[in-house]
Design brief:
The chain is an all-alpha fold. The protein has 13 helices and no strands.
Length: 296
């Protein structure tokens, strides 16, 4: 309670000194970056006055940034279309940068919706596009054909790339089509690295189920996205294709680093959940701060 009071007092003094509210202190500059957008998002989440704006920003659909900016400015008593004769430069910059940053946040909201839709889409063995990607996953990771029913579609050979049973479709239940698309991207775009990762997952005494592990990593990254913790990676992704590509790129890099961490820990399959948790405790702060860089 006392700390909150001090913070309110500090903001009041700052407003008196600068003659600008917090919104203008964040946005009232000639240029704005993705870091500015992240600051704006944090401000909206804390603002009681702009709670209705935050609700829209934190949704999972794209929105009209111009209309939302006008609504926010009206609440704050600022002009939506300032002119040089009626507004300070700070106000002019605030209006322009608010629209820009809300545009970034709209892209992030759309990304959450698009990725969630993929996660909620079950694998469908009657869908030829799903089946084709599954087969490409196999050929990306493994040479040779599978033995078994229906030309190897139902086969214990799937365990060679880390699935649990004869039908991989059952392993995608938790993450749906998203889990397949992530693994498919890794195996087809980063084939050499993916095969090296698969080999690491098979080391005697230190093995884990590669495909299952990859689907688990999808789950952790999805939860970070849903919690707005990696939103800034999607600020510049203007359509669904770009949003999925960005998520795939993050996934490939994180899974690659997880496998390297697994090897360093000399872990065994009974330690999988613990090692994964330890890894994400190290990786998540870097992802949130945007200091993480993919190794592949």
């Amino acid at each position: 309670w006392f700390g909150h009071l001090l913070w309110r007092l500090f903001k009041y003094v700052l407003r008196l000194v600068t003659r600008r509210g917090e919104l203008q202190r964040i946005l009232g500059h000639p240029t704005a970056s993705t870091a500015t957008t992240t600051r704006l998002h944090a401000y909206l989440d804390q603002s009681r006055q702009l709670a209705s704006i935050a609700t829209i920003v934190n949704g999972d659909k794209a929105f009209d940034e111009t209309k939302l900016a006008a609504k926010a400015l009206a609440i704050k008593g600022l002009p939506a279309n300032p002119t040089s004769s009626t507004a300070s430069l700070s106000t002019t910059y605030t209006v322009a940068n608010l629209k820009l940053c809300l545009g970034h946040l709209s892209h992030a909201a759309a990304a959450r919706g698009a990725i969630e839709k993929l996660r909620a889409t079950p694998y469908d063995s009657t869908d030829q596009a799903h089946e084709r990607r599954l087969e490409q996953l196999w050929t990306g990771l493994q040479d040779g054909k599978r033995e078994g029913k229906d030309g190897g579609r139902y086969s214990t050979d799937w365990s060679r790339i880390g699935f649990q049973g004869r039908d991989p479709a059952t392993d995608f239940r938790g993450m749906g089509l998203l889990g397949l698309l992530n693994l498919h991207h890794l195996a087809t775009v980063h084939r050499r690295d993916a095969r090296s990762m698969l080999a690491t997952s098979k080391v005697k005494g230190h093995w884990f189920s590669f495909a299952i592990g990859g689907i688990n990593v999808t789950g952790d990254l999805f939860h970070l996205l849903a919690a707005h913790q990696i939103a800034r990676y999607f600020y510049l992704c203007k359509d669904t294709q770009a949003q999925l590509l960005k998520f795939n790129q993050i996934y490939a890099g994180i899974f690659y680093e997880f496998v390297a961490y697994w090897k360093m820990r000399k872990a065994n399959v009974m330690m999988f959940n613990t090692v994964k948790q330890d890894f994400f405790e190290l990786a998540t702060p870097k992802l949130i701060a945007s200091t993480w860089k993919s190794s592949i």
